[in-house]
Amino acid sequence: RTMGRNIVSCCSIMLLTVVAGLIVVAISSNALSSTAPKHHHERREFVKAALLLGGGVVATSQKSQPAWADIEGVVTPILNSDGSTTNKKDNDGVTLFTTKSGLKYIELREGDETNVPPRYGQLLSISYTSYVKLAGKEEKLQKYDSVPAYVIKHGNGRTIPGLEEGLHTMRVGGKRRLIIPPKLGYVASGLGPLPVSPLGRYQLNNLLDKMVEQRGGNVIIDVELRLAMNDEADQGYYDDSSLTPEQFKTLRDNLQDSAKRAVKDRESSTSTGDIQSS
Questions:
Q1: How many CB atoms lie within 10 A of CB 119?
Q2: Could you give phi then psi for residue 241, rounded to 5 degrees?
């Protein structure tokens, strides 16, 4: 009987403890909920002030709707289909450059002026984060890959054209946001950079399919050029300089002569085969 009383007493004490704990939690929740809006407002104001003092751009759009900014506070502009944003500074203070190919980019950080832009044939070490932004003002950036260190052979044709073009005028230490239209993106199989994981590749394929269905959208890459160095195994097939008219004529003549010789060789081998068969 004494043991039964002890058990009942212990149960009563535990029940009172649980009830008291619930009351404390409820009071704390009410206190936090009543002060949360104030803290959130203060935090937003602090971030806004920090961006302004640091030369950043506050994420506001032209129609008083929130724009989508990356971690550096740079707004992804809403692009016009007619390409009228060439070198245009919008209401957010972002200068958007447009090349003749249709590539658009924003300078997030200037590179070292003592360095020259990379040359085709060099090995480039980059870090990047890549997204897809589907067509529509309400669509947000959807990240599918992020790599802190990635090496490419500049100009070897295995990188998407928009990234190659964007890197070609950068300097070591610089960072850009590249806004790549579909025609400069994953236009053929085997082009990189591609996510390493199967899930990342699935996400990218799914987003590219949606771009095809919507007939719009862009691949967006935040890329930093970390290093550019010569390739010791390069055989001299890469060159940035343009051909002179004389060199172009010589190249064209050589290609035509090679094609004529190939036709003659094919015809002679065919006639030889016919004689042997007869």
A1: 15
A2: -70, 145
Question: Pick from 181, 168, 170: which is nearest to 104 by CA?
Answer: 181
What does the chain come to in residues?
278
Running DSSP on this structure, what letter comes out for residue 202?
A: H
Nearest to 148 by CA among 75, 84, 209, 227: 227
Mean pLDDT of all residues belonging to the chain: 75
DSSP per-residue letters across 40-86: HHHHHHHHHHHHHHTT------TTSS---B-TT--B-PPPPTT-TTT
**Is the Cβ–Cβ distance between 23 and 40 less than 8 Å?**
no
Residues in the chain, pLDDT under 70: 1-93, 239-243, 271-278
Single out the residue of 132, 135, 123, 199 nearest to residue 159, CA to CA.
Answer: 123
pLDDT for res 138: 82
Specify the residue for token string 């740079």: 74
pLDDT of residue 258: 87
Q: What is the pTM of this model?
A: 0.59
Structural element, H or E, at residue 252: helix 245-277
Closest CA to 225 of 103, 113, 72, 117: 117
Give pLDDT tens digits for 107-142: 999 998 888 999 999 999 999 999 999 998 888 999
Distance between CA atoms of residues 101 and 184, nearest Å: 8
